[in-house]
Amino acid sequence: MEPFLSDDFLLHSKTARRLYHSCAAQMPIIDYHCHIDPKQIYEDERFENLTQVWLAGDHYKWRLMRSNGIDERYITGDASDWEKFEMFAKTLPKAIGNPMVHWCHLELKNYFGYEGFLNGETAKEVWDFCAEKLQKDPDLTARGLIRRSNVRMIGTTNDPGETLEWHEKLAADESFETKVLPTFRPDAVLNIHRPDFVAQVHKLEAATGARLDTLDSLRRVLIERIDYFAAHGCRSADHGLDEAVYREAPEEELQAIYRKALAGEKVTRAEQEAYRTSLLLLCGTEYAKRDWVWQIHYSCLRNPNSRMFAKIGPDGGFDSINNAAPGAPALCALLDALDREEKLPKTILYSLNPAENEMLDALIGAFQGSEVPGKIQHGSAWWFNDTKSGMRAQLTSLANLSILGNFVGMLTDSRSLLSYARHEYFRRILCDWIGELVEQGEYPCNLPQLEEIVRGVCYENAKRYFNL
Asked: In the CATH scheme, what is the code of domain 46-140?
């Protein structure tokens, strides 16, 4: 019987073990999409306990606790840090088969040197052990955790109106080697169907000093902010869509839709789609001019639990997979409209619906270009698919229908500085998946070639793709 979380964890063949230990484990990390606060990095925040560094803001853990019947007071409420951690510790042992068991123990092992098993009985032991480390170990600050994880670039997620002051300060700080680059995320002013749309437009007005009373003025400001982000080292934009959309409309109609929304009038579904399509086309064109990467996340059903949304707001761990509308026709039309004008940027597509793996891998093959190998990417298994089986399914589909060797690999999509252990998790699964093909005689045991593929997927492809 294999011991829990051994050095050969998830590596089931000689080839897998060699590829991981001699190659994948040595590669730096490019975390090109996450939700880390750059201020936290600049100020080199030190954490008092595991709840602060581990549970706060982590909706993956919150969902587990809710599924275990834990009262919301111990999740997002006013319970003490210790009480919240204790409830999570009592929950974790029941989650057999859930990647959270693996992630949590990799994090405890890699960053704190704890090799036991977290449960209700060991909770106090783990709490005290890690608290002492957090207080005394100079490497367990925000910057120390990033250095220890061998991270070369972090792509944060930023609203168009942000000043990017913390990115400026980090760029000027020669003592910190990791690039912390902003990512342009204009969802707030694209989501015309959301109740807070007018408030978000006013927020952008306040940030820029511009009056956004016409669609033309909004377009101008978005382009100005794209330039501002580019001047601060931005390499990528990210759009979160409930579903993929494409609907053309004449300019006069688009202007009228925007005026209607600003007046607080309800816009129809067709009007919503036309407005968002027009701005997606604008943004895609501008990204291509600057050689940015366009990341599109879609098929997420946001905040379906209206009672809990009213109570704790967004990002609380209540989102779900949206399978109401297939993405293929809309995505194809969107990419095609840009490609016809030779304005299609490098693009990474992520669907939260795993049933769309094969569709995405077929679709990306229709729009590849010579600018860079794998110009159009099927993004890493995202969110609810970020599991052992989900990662293997995404790798298998991508390999079946495209070229795995050009894949830009893993990202954390996390608010926790300990989540870099997810890169290790992905790399072990990748090496095991490749090793399986070799051991079964489906690919030659050519180690230099295999290592080139692994280095590419783990690091080199993303480095090239994001112009680093």
From this structure: 1.10.2020.10
pTM (2 decimals)? 0.97
Whose tokens are 């009373």? That residue is 213
> Alpha helix (H) ranges present in 316-468?
328-340, 357-364, 388-401, 421-439, 447-455, 461-465
- Give me the count of residues in the chain: 468
The SS3 call for residue 293 is: strand
CA torsion 99-430-57-73 (nearest 10°) is 0
| pLDDT one-digit tens code per residue, 40-83 | 999 999 999 999 999 998 999 999 999 999 999 999 999 999 99
The closest of 417, 313, 321 to 76, measured between CA atoms, is 313
Whole-angstrom distance, CA of residue 48 vs CA of residue 130 = 9
- Please give the CATH topology (third level) of the domain spanning 14-44+152-465: TIM Barrel (3.20.20)
| Domain-wise residue ranges, the chain | 14-44+152-465, 46-140
pLDDT of residue 440: 98
The tokens describing 262, both together, are: 């600003």
Q: What does the alpha-carbon distance between residue 303 and residue 309 come to, in Å, rounded to a whole number?
A: 6
Residues pairing with 153 in the sheet: 30, 179
pLDDT digits (tens, 9 = 90+) for 361-370: 999 999 999 9
The CB density around residue 51, as the number of other CB atoms within 10 Å, is: 20
